[in-house]
Specification:
Largest sheet: 4 strands, parallel
Strand order of the largest sheet: 2-7-1-8
Radius of gyration: 16 Å
Mean pLDDT: 90
Order of helices and strands: EHEEEHEEHEHEHH
Structural class: alpha/beta
Low-confidence stretches: none
Helix content: 25-40%
Strand content: 25-35%
Number of helices: 6
Oligomer: single chain
Distance between the termini: 39 Å
Length: about 160
């Protein structure tokens, strides 16, 4: 195993982060590269509205896991709770994998402090974005939010 490193994928809703991460995972799988782990993000959303690099939880399940200290990182945005499981992160670090996390900009400083400075891991930030019209089209196309909610996401 190599030396673990963390790659944080961050950017506005609708920028295409999930699409890029899923494509990268598929490309790595095609060449049998297992050195990169796409850490699944836990979130309070319906099962039918998550990708396979996400874990859908009810608000109650999320709160219970949080209270039990199961999350290394937590944040909320647009009435959804998000987290990265401590066990997934620690397993990848122990295996010396390159870990890819889809996170909010709000946790970047915490990761740099706790895993970069605190544990000596290399931490890289990948900021993925798109123009306002592309964001609006992608968010509207998902059909998960009202027009007002889409505009609030873009404004954020």
């Amino acid at each position: 195993a190599g030396r673990a490193a963390i790659f944080l994928a961050a950017g506005p809703s609708g920028a295409g982060k999930d699409t890029l991460l899923l494509g990268a995972r598929e490309a790595l799988a095609a060449v049998n590269d297992t050195s990169v782990l796409f850490v699944r993000r836990h979130l309070t959303r319906q099962e039918s509205k998550v990708t396979d690099i996400e874990v859908a939880l009810t608000p109650e399940e999320f709160s219970s896991a949080s209270a039990d200290g199961k999350y290394a990182l937590e944040w909320s945005a647009h009435e959804t709770q998000y987290a990265i499981a401590k066990s997934d992160l620690e397993a990848g670090i122990a295996a010396g994998q390159r870990l890819v996390l889809n996170v909010s900009r709000s946790v970047i400083e915490q990761v740099l402090r706790e895993y970069g400075q605190g544990r000596g891991l290399e931490v890289f930030c990948l900021f993925i974005t798109a123009g306002e019209e592309a964001l609006r089209a992608r968010l509207s196309g998902r059909g998960r939010e009202t027009d007002e909610e889409v505009e609030a996401r873009i404004a954020r």
